[in-house]
Design brief:
Layout lengths: L1 H11 L2 H13 L5 E4 L2 E6 L5 E3 L2 E5 L5 H17 L3 H14 L1 H10 L7 H14 L6
Parallel strand pairs: 2-4
Antiparallel strand pairs: 1-2, 3-4
């Protein structure tokens, strides 16, 4: 029953990101899919993870606990922030991961990717809600 309410809240409160996640899901419908604590996990050919509401995307062959717990933490952020998730977490997280200036900053300062507020928060939430550890 808990997963039912998780899905309902993601669909209603996290509608913008869940809608985007569903659109990506439709494009990747032939890829392997799994359930993880109520989230719909899809393997994809990219090297990074992505969480959009009810939907989690994991690099192909990386269906390990660390990726799952971390990305699941992002789904909990979606539940907490609702329609603000994309602005507060999604855009900053995508920039931290992909922008050349952010990549350069991390290398220059020897700063962990997980040190950014969106990422360490996702780790903590994922660990707390799943009871599993992240060793990233």
């Amino acid at each position: 029953m808990r997963y039912f309410w998780y899905a309902v809240l993601q669909i209603l409160w996290g509608f913008p990101q869940t809608l985007l996640g569903f659109a990506v899901f439709l494009r990747l419908r032939k890829m392997p899919h799994y359930r993880y604590h109520g989230a719909i996990v899809t393997e994809w050919k990219k090297t990074t993870g992505l969480s959009l509401g009810l939907f989690v995307y994991i690099p192909e062959g990386k269906l390990g606990q660390d990726f799952l717990v971390h990305e699941y933490g992002h789904t909990i952020q979606s539940l907490v922030l609702g329609p603000l998730y994309l602005l507060v977490v999604g855009v900053p997280s995508a920039a931290w991961c992909n922008f050349p200036c952010c990549i350069s900053f991390r290398k220059k300062k020897k700063c962990s990717y997980q040190a950014f507020y969106t990422e360490c928060w996702a780790n903590r939430l994922g660990e707390k809600t799943t009871g599993e550890k992240v060793s990233l």
